[in-house]
Amino acid sequence: MRAGPSATRLLDVIARFRSRRIVVVGDLIADEFVYGEISRISREAPVMILRFEHKEMQPGGCGNAAANLAALGAEVAVVGIVGRDAEGRAIVRALRQRGVDVSAVSVVPGYRTPTKTRILAGSVHSTRQQVIRIDREPESPPPEVALRALVPRVRELATSADGVILSDYHYGLVHPLLVEAVRRLAQRGLLVTVDSRHRLLELGGFTSATPNQSEVEEVYGRHLD
Prior knowledge:
It is a single chain. A six-stranded parallel β-sheet has the order 5-4-1-8-9-10, sandwiched between helices. It has a four-stranded mixed β-sheet with strand order 3-2-6-7. It has helices spanning about 5-15, 60-70, 85-95, 145-160, 175-185, 215-220, and strands at about 20-25, 30-40, 50-60, 75-85, 100-110, 115-120, 130-135, 165-170, 190-195, 210. Strand 6 and strand 7 form a beta hairpin. The chain has six helices and ten strands, in the order H-E-E-E-H-E-H-E-E-E-H-E-H-E-E-H. The protein starts with 6 loop residues before the first helix and ends in a 5-residue tail after the last helix. With about 220 residues, the protein is α/β, with parallel strands linked by helices.
């Protein structure tokens, strides 16, 4: 079995992100975490009653990639869509606080920001663990007119970028209009990495992809040992 990269090599790669300009194009998701302490079992049903402690909202989807890149010292711009709702505002605020350029994040009336709410529970001195997740999803993908308006922003931001990440969580932002715009950038030599949950075979012509094992198994149609 071939040995993996050394710790020194990995640290060197991480250090090279500093001051790199990266454009992240994809689905923005609100990751909400609600924390509670288990107080007792409900009389109404065999379920826990939690005493609410606090909640927090983190950028999810392509927003998570953008936040992580910013933490590594990269200069990051996000191209995406949020709804005119509290979750959308929270994502934009959180990314801006992390130094991410959100000037190409479009607020679309009538569109719901995808939100994944995780309920975490535990006793007084134990680690909080997730007990359930509630997903609130848009009823329809973003309107094509809003997606079309993002194409020139992608081209504009890419002129000074060292690379692009295309992040597809199947909520409609990674539309053929934007895919083709990013593919043309790759054809001109720009480094483009693709992360897609269900459409890897549709997103060819880029520099690299980052599937996990289950996504590769979906492509091959069989389990990988």
